[in-house]
Design a protein that fits this description.
Layout: E1 7-13, E2 18-21, E3 27-40, E4 46-58, H1 59-68, E5 74-87, E6 93-106
Parallel strand pairs: 4-6
Antiparallel strand pairs: 1-3, 1-5, 2-3, 3-4, 5-6
Length: 154
């Protein structure tokens, strides 16, 4: 039976990249991405849905994203879905599905990438180093559709 795990998505960052390093010194960055879907409902009224996703980048790609991207930056991401589970501070099992970036393409500089950005894709590493999942767990299990949990209301 054939299998395919491929994600292609375009959206904008909802916050600045969050860069961390594993105990072994490997860079890892979380990019919080929002993508919109506009459609007309049965009555013909224009509606909009927002989907918030976490994209994880590794190594040089993580450092480049942290250097050149900020809140509002438009991106094209090619990658795969990846799930993780961990025990939360309260002892409960937590899980999340994220996009593991294989390629990140910066789409523009108008309010997007920082000045001088180069949009060269950087390959994701073949091996994954074990990282402390609690560093990424903050709010990951409490996603609200319609408002990014990390964004201010108002």
């Amino acid at each position: 039976m054939a299998n395919l795990n491929k994600v292609l998505i375009i959206g904008n960052l909802t916050r600045d990249p969050e860069l961390r390093y594993t105990p072994g010194g490997t860079a890892v960055a979380n990019l919080r991405l929002a993508t919109n879907r506009r459609y007309k409902d049965k009555s013909g009224e224009l509606k909009q849905e927002v989907c918030y996703l976490t994209v994880v980048t590794w190594d040089k790609q993580a450092e480049v994203c942290n250097q050149y991207l900020h809140k509002g930056s438009p991106l094209f991401v090619e990658g795969r879905l990846q799930s993780r589970t961990w025990d939360g501070p309260d002892g409960k099992k937590r899980s999340v599905v994220e996009i593991r970036a294989e390629r990140v393409q910066f789409l523009g500089t108008s309010g997007g990438a920082k000045t001088g950005a180069v949009s060269e894709p950087v390959a994701a590493p073949e091996t994954e180093e074990k990282i402390d999942n609690t560093a990424f767990a903050s709010g990951a299990d409490e996603v609200s559709w319609g408002q990014d949990p990390g964004e201010e209301q108002g």
